[in-house]
Write a structure and sequence with these properties.
Distance between the termini: 80 Å
Order of helices and strands: HHHH
Largest sheet: none
Length: about 100
């Protein structure tokens, strides 16, 4: 009779590696997407897009046109396909404006 212990252990190790390396991250991404959460990469891209749009708005409009600046930033983000709830976008915009003002101070 052939001892299958080593083969079975190898199969279990392979399944464990596939499960932890691919299936669990895929499931987590799927669940996060269904719950409206964004990944770290998506958050970094959103931050970059907001910062760029805020800087552009600062160049395009004068200091008394705050509402126009915000509307411009929101339009740019929507044109780029960001459809996140308004409070999250507002927070990102305010953080970018705060950082921009502190960079010049």
């Amino acid at each position: 009779m052939v001892d299958l212990t080593q083969i079975i252990l190898a199969v279990i190790a392979l399944l464990s590696a596939v499960l932890t390396g691919f299936i669990i991250p895929w499931l987590k991404k799927k669940v996060d997407a269904e719950n409206g959460k964004i990944t770290e990469t998506q958050a970094a891209l959103l931050k970059l897009a907001v910062n760029t749009a805020v800087k552009a708005a600062e160049q395009l409009f004068n200091s008394t046109e705050g509402q126009k600046k915000k509307a411009y930033v929101l339009d740019v983000l929507k044109d780029q396909g960001y459809h996140i709830d308004d409070s999250a976008i507002d927070a990102a915009i305010e953080a970018a404006v705060y950082a921009l003002k502190n960079d010049f101070a």
